[in-house]
């Protein structure tokens, strides 16, 4: 990477930047912003660092002129070199080539730019346009980069050469690395670890399989899902693990090279209420206002899709000065449902329901063939959460109503309900498609595809809808009803 930068620097023209300095805007102080500001260099330090790396050159008078405004082409060059994108060294420049062509091409290849048609190289760079570019280079969310810019007091309008240097030097800390190492580990609660690295892991190392292999836990514990970068952090991860036992101390060994001693989390997840959702499903709720937040609202991977619900926590996991307990991934979690006078029933978490539609209401489903009995009182317990109001009396519920279905591409269908359920009630549901030619297919809901009352169902086992066949759609189980719902395949 350094060799590439040095080679690129040799062919780069001196950057001449004109214009005046932009007054920075200010954001409210917080522990997280103070931490970011502390981690960042001053403008002079950043300019000097990029100059030593061969990324910035002086003008004709030998000065770096950090006060001058930067153009789009100049910023792309700085970003490509500072963040380690690969330059094509094989193609010789033609007489018609511009000095910035190699950097723009590298940015397009790396996904930083969509294409050069709409790229205006000599236009002064706008701060509002830089966050998506840096986010793509770092393979993370835009919200984090915007947060860094606010904290470093870099505005959304025309920015200076020095401001660009300061932002990029800070972003260099967030470049992913296979050699990333752990700095600290602590338990946040019974099911969640917070692991700080010196740099972010590669996307490959963040996958569930790789993380389970690389992060070996003692005492029979293991990760239940992949580590997730906290929004706004450089390299702090929320790591979901199996329920830790109170009073135990266990070890975490990373890639066989680093070992940390960890004291088990003592704090159970604080939940508020339980509510029946369908004849075989109930949900438990928590509230941000009462000091509990689902990790879906504070991790980089989901920040782009959560809108105003996504936030950046302070370093101590508080927000606006209020501590927040983080619910990490509930994959593979279970609870116990006990009917009054009956035997306990183990119920499983319904995947992808823990934070949908702006809510924090994970759902649990009874085993197949078992339903909630109207009039019976049930108690919900678990070894990983405490539920303030943990009893409910089951009611007779009406199943969802399938109103229509349509072929998408032969391998998938769209299915619409008569009304928007306002929640993820399709999760892990299936339908049967019976063809008028005697064929039979099953299709299962594709998670997180629901829009209002419509979701996508994928045909299982490689099946395909056949042209010229009419299929009657019916739900598998009692979760919904369907009367005369057909798909005519052309």
TrEMBL record:
<dbReference type="InterPro" id="IPR001119">
    <property type="entry name" value="SLH_dom"/>
</dbReference>
<protein>
    <submittedName>
        <fullName>S-layer homology domain-containing protein</fullName>
    </submittedName>
</protein>
<feature type="domain" description="SLH">
    <location>
        <begin position="30"/>
        <end position="93"/>
    </location>
</feature>
